[in-house]
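Mods, move this if it's the wrong board.
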Amino acid sequence: MTLLSLRTSLSIRRLLKTLAPVSLVMLTGCASNWLPTSGPSVKDMETAATPANADTSIIELVEINAAVTRRLAENEKKQSFSNGFATARNPAYVVNAGDVIEISVWEASPALLFGTAPSFAGMSAGTGGSKNTSLPEQMIARDGYITMPFAGRIKVAGKTLAKIESEIVDALKGKANYPQVIVRLTRNSTTNVTVVGEVNKSIILPLTPRGERLLDAIAEAGGVKQPVEKTTVQISRDSVVKTMALEKIIQDPKQNIRLSPGDVITTFFQPYSFTALGATGKNDEINFVAQGISLTQAMARAGGMKDERADVKGVFVFRFEEPEALKLGQAPKASDADGKIPVVYRLDMSDPSAFFVAQNFMVKNKDVIYVANASSVEFNKFLNIMVSVIYPLVNAGTIAKTY
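Not the wrong board. Structure tokens:
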């Protein structure tokens, strides 16, 4: 053996001795810090959510099981229209500033105040022994008052038509001969709801004592433009905003709630989607219908898990969750603008019962479904890199030895 080949052989041996302990360190978990990967491993997720990191952790890691899916389903029911909105009153029917009313007065014969019909524009004489006078329409002023001949200014805002009639009669007693009054609302400007969005005609719908319901308003707007199963409905009432699938509202009569003055009804077309990442059949943003889909259906739409890459114990769903959904947030956590907490749900698909659990776990809008790589995938990556480094050196030593 020549001096050159001897030196080369010794160098290779020293290199292998140096790389051996390094390789062991890499294989114990540090490889993920520098090996190319599509995302965190199962161990990375567990470490990020451990109690020891409560001060720095920004996520809650929750195992998906029957109890969790049941609690989420119960919380979802609270978000329904029937539970999210207090029962709207059946309008009695009060008037307010901006409404327009018409007043008609009947006076028994001999008519003392309204017997000279021509003195009032718009009044007409009745038949028999009574006199009927219809006063001109008038809009209720901003301060809530109207002006009534011989009765003066009367506050009517916030009162029912029957109450206004009674107060006008009381104001005319002693002046008119057995007066009787009828008040009619001719233009409703305040007790109404607004319907906008994916409807055939955006409208402002006046409410009546009948008590219009949600589907009544949508029907008055000409119905929705898009298929029912792809349409969602949002109701904004005061500071409360709730959204439901139109198909669910039609299927469950309890969700067809009575409307309240000031409600804003907005319809949307297929606004829901989730994102699939990691070791799935395809990485993509995938739309789904308003009725919703389960985690099982979502995984199928994403092409399932890749056999050669996926860790069956590492199916994760990233979501900003309502704190009360699972009674989360015992320790301070980061939250979004709506105060929701970042939660990561994990499903262990190696357990056969997980397939039943996944059928009851509903995917929400903007969820991120991520499937982690198996540890063997990282190991193979490491071996490939080591071989690509060592093989040229060994080959060079073999060549040198031949000389």
